Amino acid sequence: MKETTDYERKQEELTWLENLQLNSWEPEVIISGITLAFLFVFPAKIYEFSVYLIQEVGVGYLPSLLILFYLTTVVSVFKIFFVVHLCLRFVWAGLLGLSYAFPEGVINQNLFKIAQGYNYQKPADMVLRLEKICSMTFAYPVSLVLMFLMLTVYFGFLIAIYIWFDLNLLTLSIIILLSLAAFFTLVLGRKKTKLKIWYSESMLSSISAIYQSNLGKWLAVVYAILIFAFSVPIIISDTDDFSMFSNDRGLIEKELEWPGKHLHFQSDHVAGSRFPRSFIPREELDDDYMKLGIARYEGDGKIITALNTEFISALDSMKWQPIQETADLHRVYIDEQLVPIETWSKHRIGGTKQKIYQTGIDISNLAEGTHTLRVEKLLLKYGFIDNQAELITIEHWDQFEFIKR
């Protein structure tokens, strides 16, 4: 009696699983559509989060750039996966309709003579074959989800240590290399360790093994590589202009020749995004008074004490104004004439809550026409290995043109 009950229960479970497999297209399409809707929103949030780390937390540009590239890569890869899946489901739906309209498929004698005599696939066979491909395409990202989840936790832990202990890039790089070397030694070594046994029995390893053993080792790898390759243009687009938030470098020739209006004029600025350097209300000014804003970088505050002690003589020789806060690290020029700044006021911009310094500049003496505003910045540059400070002046920290009416 017990054996009969167990058999019936097993049959019910198999029937339930088969029904799920037959109707898997419904949750697949719903999940893909909803996920894509969220994925197209994430890049802007990731971009702003990376900028927030630089400006508000004081994280260096390189770690923030790596975070941006990593998270953008994750989102872009899944975009490609789900777009491919939805496209395949679109074709599948077309074939499904074709199989309903013409279940018998091709009628050879009704074709042109040049097309007769060949073996054509039946619509039902094509539907079943594409159904397997769609399901396989949808299941593949599951293994990547688990992998990216572990990497995200790992990198999040490293960034937390980096911020908490105020480490330099050399120390952080050594920690990353040592931890990765230890992990790959344990996982890729031939000796069967407890870690390898645990990993091989995990869902991540099992899914990868299923794909490799059924599709072929190299086909599964090539498929993943192609997805990453197709995501590269999306990654480049989603990280555009992020280099402007590299606080310790001057503008390159392209940025000087083709400055972005949305980065310098509030009237052209993208709502909900941060300013990387300096900005004014609009390109054309009708008043005799210009409001100039400069983005505040938290990391600048760490060098003020050193500047006022170790480099005080250098500041005197440069005739630099007394440095009391990070706004004093900047000099403003209009048409290469130094503009004296008496005071800077502190503000936060609505939406992003970005901290900025703002001042007013009298431009009544300027003639009508185009003028150039340039911002020079004083910083300390630390060596990657010896961590020794070097005083640097970034002459073209920012530069753009405006029009006086």
From TrEMBL:
Membrane as UniProt keyword: yes
Alphabetically ordered keywords of this record: Membrane, Transmembrane, Transmembrane helix
Transmembrane segments: 29-47, 67-88, 138-164, 170-189, 218-236
Name of protein: ABC transporter permease
